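Shape matters. As here.
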Amino acid sequence: MSGYRLKIVQLAIILITGGAGALVAWFFGIPLPYLLGSLISTAAFSLVYFARTSERIWFPLSLRKSFTAVIGVMIGSTFTSDILAKAPDLAVTLGAMVLFVALAHGTNYAVFRHIGRYDRATAFFSAMPGGLIEAVILGERAGGDVEKMGVQHFVRIILVIISVPTLFFIFTGQAVGSAGGETLELSPAGWRDWLLIAVLVPVGVFAGEKLRLPAGHLVGPMVLTAGLQAFNIIDLYGPAALLNIAQLVVGAGLGTMFARSTPSQLAAAAGLGIISVAITLGMSAVFALVLSGWLAMPFAVLLISFAPGGVTEMSLVALSLGVSPVLVTAHHLFRILFTVFVAGVVGRKIG
């Protein structure tokens, strides 16, 4: 079989595996079933495939980015003028985010340095509460262990996107995502909505990359769509089916990243990750509780905003719960930018 045909077959297998996992998760009412079900099933398959072949199964990054862009358009379509009224509150919460990042980074560093016995550089960059790719790049320059840092950040993101929807379900009884019957469609999406999305995705990605925006393939389409919505140029209704497909593809792409990890590496990273995420989510809950008492922002919005998960994944949680995904995304982008800035400055001394 030619190399190209083999890649196509591998991609088909991964998407079928992800689809099967998503359906099982949906059947059992698991939160965010299309994302988590796809992720778990493809991660398991990728680990087995790598163990038998010593090769990572092929999954094109461009495909995951394309569907991440679709999610960006969906987030932007939720933008309303009411969000602008929250600007004064946003100034307070972003200021609080600075304190949160400092506390979370310092606490995580202690966990990885003293419990995990990581060297200083590896512990410092593994402790960053955001910026997976940036953490690995900066950490490598400082002499850190690339494999440990990469796995540790990936475990952080996975644990957070599993924990947050599950905690919402346990404490509120509200299922997150399509398992709870949620939909983004205020009215049925028509062919014009599909056409708009087909145009907004590539234009938004191009703008995001040209402007070098953080997470440009998500933020570019989101900002473009939000701006057009704000000026009443478009009135987009996001098809729920497309969002489910986007979650499935993003989850499958994340699952394949487990491939090169050994069981011992995953066990060690998971143990440290559970400690780190438990502490950091506890901090997130405290900040959310205090700020929700002062500001006109619900606890749920603030908790998701401060939870140290990935931008795309936490935005999906916000979309599913209908809790101001644009505000949530703004907080996560600020957290990542500030975290990377501090790590870049302090990391030179660590190195």
